[in-house]
Amino acid sequence: MALQMYELSGRDERLRFSPYCWRVRYALAHKGLECDFIPWRFTQKEAIAFSGQGKVPVLVDGETTVTDSYEIFRYLDREYPDKPLLGDDTAESRARFFKFYSERALAPGILRTIVMDLFNVVHPDDQAYFRETREKALGRSLEEMHAPSKGLSALDAALEPLRGRLEEADFLDGEAPGGADYMVFGHFMWARCVSAADLVSNADPVYAWIERMLDQHGGVGRNATRIVDIEGGYPG
Amino acid sequence: MALQMYELSGRDERLRFSPYCWRVRYALAHKGLECDFIPWRFTQKEAIAFSGQGKVPVLVDGETTVTDSYEIFRYLDREYPDKPLLGDDTAESRARFFKFYSERALAPGILRTIVMDLFNVVHPDDQAYFRETREKALGRSLEEMHAPSKGLSALDAALEPLRGRLEEADFLDGEAPGGADYMVFGHFMWARCVSAADLVSNADPVYAWIERMLDQHGGVGRNATRIVDIEGGYPG
What we know:
The structure is a homodimer of 236-residue chains. Chain A is of the alpha+beta class.
């Protein structure tokens, strides 16, 4: 039986823009696993109540339910050990750092750049929830958070180590992409799906890596629906 | 025969403050290898001309000479495979990221904080060289670089992913320190040896990790001579 994954969607159901869900999409593609993706929205808490919590991704594999993108990586490596995502103990310890690097170094700058794009993409029924939870977590209004030039400048600084690594290698994990690449790339898919903003200049080694990542596994990233592909979807 | 390492020293020969040499000191201690450390100064290019380049660390192991801290890690793992520093291919690919993280994300903020301390510690014969090379590389005078509050603020932001990882684990490499820890910790030893500046508040998980790192391998870091230990060494 194919796997099932509950995945965040927007006001157009084709828009799938959670960075955490994108990590798992790439991880599943890496392992060549079939999966049914079930669109889900922020306020549909009952639909995933069976998982014991209220966020996606939620992966269902027969009798087993797994939540949290990193825990899903671990689960997939345990149950489907071919083509490991995380590797042995040392490799996995180091993979954890990429989780924090993407969530704590890259995400804040990206969020300041795309927060109003995110708000535009969220389903109307979810907008109040989105605004309330984000404003509470960050202690300011969405409109105050929105500061693309500050966001891009913070992102530019935070990208330095990624840039260094990608000047010497095609992927963070070496000659082929692996768990570390997927862990970080989710946040670039987040921005790509909801926004027309250019996060990285095309002379940047990070840009070339993004292009390579988009083409991996049959173009799983490249083929994703973006707000800019939807007629009338993007203001301006 | 014991290994030999040429190591940067300051105006007091006991001061050993190169972040790259500290990486190797820790790596050697990790493997339990004996080593004679030969003090060396920036302008003593002839003393290491046999290595084909002009920087330390230079490791000499019998007939073999190895330069560059990361290449020395690789060499040590090849020749002394017990207690690996870098691990298998995936683990090593990820270890590279810590090199760039420390050099490109952490070092700039630390440098802005300690640059005049460094200048004070450098041997008088090396000061002109130090000033000229650093000012050329960074495009401004040492005095302009010196901006501790800006440096500490940049460092604070750059530490976020480290903080996240060290909230959940004692070391970057898990339950015991490894190559990733040494790669990053070198820059904290750099600051510790030359400066009295507190880079990290004592409530920070990074602070607790620094304390643990100082105590590793018989206190190799804790026992290092600091400028503040030298009578009359520290202005103010």
